Amino acid sequence: MAGKQKRHLEDLSVDEFMLSGLNSASEGESDEETDQQNGFNKPNKEKELKPEAFTTDDGKKGKANEHKQQLSRLQNKDPEFYKFLQANDQTLLNFDDTDSSDDEDEKKYHKLPSALEEVDSGDDDNEGQKDSEKSKKAVETIKVTEKMIADWKAAMKKEPSSRLFREITQAFKAAVATTKGEGGAQCRYKVADSSVFNALVLFCIRDINAALQRMLNLKPAKDQKKLVLPSSSPKWQKNQVDIKMYLGGVVQLLSCLTEATVIGAVLRHANQLVPYYLSLPKQCRHLVKQLMKQWSTGEETSRVLAFLALNKICRHKQDAYLNPILKQMYISYVQNCKFTSPTALPMINFMQRTLTEMYSLDTQATYQHAFIYIRQLAIHLRNAMTMKKKETYQSVYNWQYIHCLYLWCRVLSTLHPSDVLQPLIYPLCQVIIGTVKLVPTSRYYPLRMHCCKALILLSGSTNTFVPVLPFLLEIVQQVDFNKKPVRMSKKPINFAVILKLSNINLMEKAYKDGLIDQLYDLILEYFHTQHSSIGFPELALPTVIQLKAFLKECKVANYCKPIRQLLEKVQENSSHITGRRQKAAFGVADATAVAAWEKQMKEEGTPLSRYYSQWKKLREKEIQLEISGKERMEDLDLPEIKRKKIQEKKVEDKKEFKDLFQSDSESDDDDGELKIKGKKGRGYDDDYDEDVDPSDMSDDEEGGDSDEDEEASKVPQPLSSSALIKLAEGDDDLVEDLELSDDD
User: Fold this and answer.
1) Which residues contact 626 (CB under 8 A, 6 or more apart)?
2) Would you say the C-alpha torsion 544, 550, 555, 559 has a positive or negative sign?
3) Total Cβ atoms within 10 A of residue 573
4) Contact yes or no for 485/508 (Cβ under 8 A)
5) 651: number of CA atoms within 13 Å, CB side?
6) pTM over 0.85
7) Which of 22, 219, 308, 575 maximizes the CB count within 10 A of its CB?
8) DSSP category for residue 694
9) Which residue did the predictor score with more confidence, 589 or 386?
10) What is residue 183's three-state secondary structure?
11) What pLDDT is stored for residue 8 in this prediction?
């Protein structure tokens, strides 16, 4: 009946839908009442314990009946398809839900288990046992001893194996973990003693590389320039995980060390392991980061070893590592040349030379980097020239900018001749000349000197004419060397480590002394780059004229002497070149003959080149002394002047005056006026000493203590009693008439 009364919801009206809902509810209630009347009282507990799965099973049974009815209706609606099912799938038509209904009836009733299980307590106990096992495993780590290291060492020498290398790698990982305070708790081994740590690290540094080569059966390449990568070994995949762990430990150890000698040993080991790092790109990137740090900020030995490793990586895998390493090295160079001092200058020069060597590996990549960074320098200069503000001037007039200019001059001069880099010479010269002309004042003469040095280097190495002399001779014209200095300086000004002079420096004598020395050095260096040129006499003529004018005007002998010597050497070289070229049989237009003549002159030598070689040796010694921080005054054995304290001087003066006026006892008793005079004299000296400020004492007063004996010898000796009486009585008084004026 229920199946027949079912109709689709869309066919029902609202009233019919409401009535059908009420009927179903009343039918449910009537069923419950009839069950209670027949005596089938179900307990409430069974209702509460009945799971939801029972309702789903009833639903499944109803769906099975519906499916069976649909198949029976299918015979009437589509007999052809029904015949097809009879022929191909009898199981679908002979569908019966008796088995499933029986199973469902069995599932309706809940069966109690034969034995109760304490689920919660058992799980807690199991978890506790697992935690205790884990903690025992964590606690029960193997402690590394020196005997174990000795056994590993002997086994490695005898026959290295993968299992043995894994144990050593685990121990090395635990040792490295102690450097960061982790204590190696997550490792299989534990290193608790410093002696064991040192022995393990020393063993790994010395023996691991050779053991790995034997274990992987790596044979050295026939060509030493080529590198045999361990990834080509058939045993590489088996040991890759352990090797990766060991390489990571070496990088971590390198980042934690502070002792220079230990860092040097680890860097040498890392240099040996470069082929393994090249086979693992991630570990290689970590290594490059640490090498860059050591190259830019480490000690001298560490810098050299780090550079060798970086150079090795770039030589064997240029495509992957050269460009990023060059970029990072340039950035590190700029960051570390912000401040320049006598101690930092050698490190900056080292970074310039090594970076130049890295750029020499690939001129195409060097051109791209040089073009970008020289253009960046030119943009800073253009902004400073157009905006004319203090901030823009400071963006150009600083050590980083000057050192970058000098770096690119060194790169272009070292890699010359190069057709790729030749176009960059002219823009770089223009940037440097623009830097000199930006603020052409006397305070920035040191910066001008640095720019001229860079231009001289670039001009001499690339055989390019750059007009450097006008910037140097301009200083000779602007500075008045005859004017006496206002201040005396204690030590000379080191132009190599300054860019700007203060107003006080401009008034010191050391300023003009330093200018003369710098002009002498730079003019001589520039003429040395052109000493064999066939046009040397014409090039030197303006300089000769201006130096002669300087010698006529300057009255200071110390300034005239070096300039006169320089003038003589330039004139001597000019006359030598003039005499030799008069004998030449070719014309000026013959470039090949001119080049051959200049080459011959350079090989034979000129008077200026011979003098320059001698001067350069002496100058280098002076520069080394300045870099080492030794002053020139220390080489002289000057006597030290010891000043006495004011209080001690007062006591000595009192004693001298007291002894000075001591006389016979009779004169002292008879004449009391002398005592009063002596007191007055002492009081005067005390007041004088108190008024003197020790900071205001000049150099002339320093010798006052040494002249005390002479002053004491000039003091008059004590007089006799009769002479003192006559002195006290004095001459007879003279009475004169007074003339009074009308006003009185």
Assistant:
1) 342, 494, 496
2) negative
3) 25
4) yes
5) 4
6) no
7) 308
8) G
9) 386
10) coil
11) 58
pLDDT at 600 over 60: yes
**Better-scored residue on pLDDT, 50 or 553:** 553
Tens digit of each residue's pLDDT (9 = 90 or more) over 378-401:
999 999 999 989 899 999 999 999
Q: Tell me if 443 sits within 8 A of 506, measured CB to CB.
A: yes
CA atoms lying within 13 Å on the CB side of residue 742: 0
Which helix (H) or strand (E) segment holds residue 134: the answer is helix 119-139
Residue pLDDT, tens place only, 295-328: 999 899 999 999 999 999 999 888 889 999 999 9
Nearest by Cα to 435 from 394, 381, 474: 381
pLDDT digits (tens, 9 = 90+) for 642-652: 555 556 656 66
Instruction: Name which of 557, 512, 534, 529 is nearest 465 in CA terms.
Output: 529
pLDDT at position 528: 93
Nearest to 141 by CA among 189, 80, 85: 189
Per-residue buried b or exposed e for 580-614, using 16+ beta carbons within 10 Å of the residue's own CB: bbeeeeeeeeeeeebeebbeebeeeebbbbebbee
Confidence class for position 487, pLDDT limits 50, 70, 90 = confident
Residue 51 preceded by cis peptide, ω within 30? no
What pairs with residue 189 in β-bridges?
142
CA 718 to chain centroid, in Å, comes to 78
- Cα→Cα distances 312→209, 235, 272, 365, Å: 17, 25, 10, 17
**Pairwise CA distance, residues 460 & 427, whole Å:** 17
User: Which residues, at least 6 apart from 199, have a Cβ–Cβ distance to it below 8 Å?
Assistant: 146, 149
Q: Which amino acid is at 84?
A: F
Measured in residues, the chain has a length of 744
Radius of gyration of the chain (CA): 51
Beta strands 142-143 and 189-190, pairing class: parallel
CA distances to 257, 356, 407 from 302, rounded to whole Å, are 12, 19, 22
Amino acid in the structure at residue 477: Q
